[in-house]
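Lab notebook, design round three. We kept the backbone fixed and only want residue identities now. Task for the bench partner: fill in a sequence for the structure below.
Input structure tokens:
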């Protein structure tokens, strides 16, 4: 009986530590792994290069895999911009990031479910999802929402 109570207390303490580490401890849960601020410039450069090469007439000669390759650069650029630090990183930016990723992911899931049903009704068959479409929708939505939140905060301060 004593051993069983000891095991239950030990298990409860371990679960409490896991909870505090992930959710309850504000210092630990507020620390995100983010790239340094200069990765925004690298991401912007990747986006510019991918757009430039994707729409040049020279690439129409090349095959479709080269065009998809530059689409991957575009997604990588969005990714670098999305997870790079701001110049001033505070609690409000953490809240903005959390709200933006939650809403963009939820919106992407709803969009693709509705699109799937649209294809079923219209064509009678489903269409496979493209990974670039999913990532572009999630990352693009995240960036739009995050920077909208930041602009609203700056307007409220002024």
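Proposed sequence:
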């Amino acid at each position: 009986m004593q051993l069983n109570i000891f095991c239950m207390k030990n298990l409860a303490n371990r679960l409490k530590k896991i909870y505090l580490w992930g959710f309850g401890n504000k210092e630990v849960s507020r620390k995100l792994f983010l790239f340094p601020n200069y990765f925004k410039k690298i991401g912007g450069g990747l986006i510019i290069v991918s757009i430039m090469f994707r729409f040049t007439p020279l690439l129409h000669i090349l095959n479709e895999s080269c065009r998809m390759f530059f689409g991957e650069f575009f997604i990588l650029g969005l990714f670098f911009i999305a997870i790079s630090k701001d110049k001033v990183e505070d609690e409000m930016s953490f809240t903005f990031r959390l709200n933006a990723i939650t809403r963009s992911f939820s919106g992407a899931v709803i969009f693709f479910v509705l699109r799937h049903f649209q294809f079923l009704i219209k064509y009678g068959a489903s269409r496979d999802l493209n990974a670039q479409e999913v990532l572009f929708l999630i990352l693009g939505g995240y960036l739009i929402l995050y920077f909208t939140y930041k602009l609203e905060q700056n307007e409220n301060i002024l």
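Keep this in mind before ordering anything: The mean pLDDT is 79.
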